[in-house]
User: Fold this.
Amino acid sequence: MKYKMLVLDMDDTLLNDNHEISEKNKHFISQAQAAGVWVVLASGRPTPAMQSYARELNLHQYGSYMLSYNGAVISEVNTGKVLFEQSMPKEDIHTLYDLSVEHKLHIITYIDGQIIAETDFKYIDFESQLTGMPLKKVPSFKEAVYTSSVKCIFLEEPERLQVVAPLLQSQIKGKNVTTSKPFFLEVTEFGIDKAASLERLAKHLGINQSEIIAVGNANNDLSMIEYAGLGVWVDNVTPELREYADVIVASNNNDGVAEVIERFIL
Assistant:
């Protein structure tokens, strides 16, 4: 099989634990692009938090794309042009806020290029540090959320979030709910996930499902792992997900992405 597209999750997949792209991964990604393969980043991260990595990989030189906010936005790396965007109405975000109060959880969303939060919490600070986006602490979350947004995140200690998540998922209707890290429960509009946006992009580029490799490590990657012609986990995948991929390669700290390219593309 000649694969035409390689879709990469970022955190804990392409990026090592220092949030860096290894030289070996960069080398093999460069080789794949030179061979005519589309390399696409697909992340729960906001678009601005993906751009520097995309340019580090020279995706802009090949006219490639990013799927950000778990697929809620598809954009061109070079121009920033948005091909697709699906937001949640502010009223729905206000409802999610009410649930966060009911269950004593922290909640954030993204407005005007800022992370909006009403509470202080170490994982909110982590999201700001991870994405490089400014954190705006507000006295009233609902008043600050005056317009639609593409994503909300509930945040809590992993042990508690794991217990509360099934209840939240039963209460949240008409949305997609998934985890990216053990302390993040992410909510996007119904029908929005990495697979749905990958399918949109593939159709835009005239690429068949069977010609796609997707690589990830967590629950928010599962949809694209199952959608792609070849679904690949890195070895540090969330343990209960291991059975769902076609292949498991080396971990994010051991150049798993390079292994994928070497074995299946070059």
